[in-house]
Amino acid sequence: MKRFKLAFLFCFSMLLLIPLAFTTLQEDAVSQLDNRMLAKIPVSRRLWITQGENFLRDRIGFRDDFILFYRQAMYRLFNVFEHPRYTLGSNGHLYLIDATAIEFYQSLYDSTALGQIKDKLEILHQYLKSKNKHLLFVQMPMKQNVYPEFVPSYIHKGTKPLLSAALDEALKDGGIPHIYLADVLRRYRAIAPTFHQKFDPQHYTAVGAFVAHEAIAHELQKLYPNYPIPLWSDFHQSSLKENLAMYFLHTEEEEVPVLQRISRDFDIKHLKDDLLDINISTNQNAPIKKTLFLIGDSFLYDKRVYYSEQGALDYYGHAFEKVYLIPLAEVKNIYTLIERYQPDIILYETVEWMLQNHFRFNWTQPS
Length: 367
What we know:
Strand content: 15-25%
Low-confidence stretches: none
Number of helices: 13
Distance between the termini: 89 Å
Order of helices and strands: HEEHHEEHHEHHEHHEEEEEHHEHEH
Mean pLDDT: 86
Structural class: alpha/beta
Helix content: 25-40%
Shape: elongated
Oligomer: single chain
């Protein structure tokens, strides 16, 4: 009995001491599971008294392994999904629950936001028009707006119109060229999924991207009648099984569509100067002898959509003589970029739930 007690005491001590021995001591450590910074290391006795518990809870050894095991067990046994950025809806669909996305979906936007965004687009439109240039503003929908029936019941949609829908109406009244792609992607989902079930819930699928760029092409034809509409035959169609480990579902896979342009009649170059660090396409044989600014968020370049370094250049490089693929993060002042590179048309894209964030950079016109 004495040996048994000693063995039990030894094992119990090891269970306590081994995790402590592997405590994370790295400064500014980040938890991928919680999507946040871990508690800082207390630097004084007084701070140890007040912050020591948080430090040990965040940094004790094997913490992530225990949390992952718990989340996997809850999902497998009770279909309860825990993640800092996503939630599980019905039919196995994941949805983004970023605070900004939820506020957008529940129409919790500032009453002045609509007017401010419309005014900035109106000023940009008129500025380009005065220089015989064009603007096409594109709103991409979030998954909640394309697959609303699977959204968890606890996430209630707002009673007033979404900011994107209200902006769509306001831009129609103002005569500003634009396209809102929610209806297009909703309609096509009867043929093929336009958003993933679990893999990358933030972006459309490769099929959704094709449908979106096809709709944009029809808008561009109103400006350039000889603009070529993309064809399914332009792309090699296949699929991949993607692991869902990023959502802690290590044993699950999802089959996702892949579209890759069969041949490119344009060249890709890298531009790096004091204003931009981007890829551009050049095509001397393009049917549209114009320069396009393709400004937008990750819907235009995410590799989980395009499976290519070229991103949306594969949809526009064959049509325009020169295309600048400009991530919104690169845009410090849009008017400075216009003055420097002289585009003939700006295709400005934003996903709807980030509308307010994407209109906070400097819009001051150069004197």
